[in-house]
Fold this sequence. Notes:
Layout: E1 2-6, H1 8-25, E2 46-50, E3 58-59, E4 67-73, E5 76-82, E6 101-104, E7 107-108, E8 121-122, E9 126-129, H2 136-142
Antiparallel strand pairs: 1-2, 2-3, 4-5, 6-9, 7-8
Amino acid sequence: MNIWHWKADxxxxxxxxxxxxxxxxxxGDEGQIRRFEVIPRRASSVEDLLGGGFSTLTxxxxxxxVQGNAVWEQGRWRVVFKRSMxxxxxxNDAAFGPGRMQTVAFxxxxxxxxxxxxxxxxxxxxxxxxxxxxxxxxxxxxx
Length: 143
């Protein structure tokens, strides 16, 4: 099972590093004492994981294939996951393709709600079908 785990703290690391870099490029830190701050380098705010049952969750090698971005707005996170339809690891990655049905589920862990360990809100399994991209022939016939 391929699990994409978006992490707010990883998103914060990415956003802070980007803001610091933009500030440095704009010359906003000239003449100031530079504070030593360690901001981890992250390939993505999403950890790409594999699981095969209870207590088998493992982080995949080569993180960064699944990209994530999130925004905190009006008391809610809006999270977007992005990955190429094609994969270099078909045995372990979720398989997506136009017209192909893929079973997906979503879970949300909320620490402010005193959820811990395995406690979380879980959605039921859903069937995801990605619409095929119409070919030029189909578009011309519709005109």
